[in-house]
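Lab channel / #folding
Pinned by the channel admin:
"Please post every new chain as: sequence first, then the structure tokens as a reply. Keep commentary short and put observations after the output so the thread stays searchable."

First post following the new format, from NK:
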Amino acid sequence: VQLQASGGGLVQAGGFLRLSCAASGRTFSSYAMGWFRQAPGKEREYVAGISQSGGITYYAGSVKGRFTISRDNAKNTVLLQMNSLKPEDTAVYYCAAKLGVLGPQYDYWGQGTQVTVSS
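Reply from TO:
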């Protein structure tokens, strides 16, 4: 599966962005999907994940209540709605895909999209 993330940009604190990840290749609905982020000098963080059907989701504590992950299997896309953004959300965001159950280890990665939140 090939993944293409988009939607990053510069936003003020308190604002919002919506990231999108378009998938092509093998059957999209076979994959659990996730979003990760990596800020300069920091380890990559697993931000959110969603199961193949969309019925199970995961959120890191740092984003719970502010970010929402969703997917549209008919359109081969996964979205990350990010509200109430904070400067500490600044990072390169990556979408990823995996076969099997939802979890933190992913097999396929897209290129990143930069999110910058100004204070």
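NK: The two ends are 37 Å apart (CA to CA).
TO: also worth noting, The chain has a mean pLDDT of 96.
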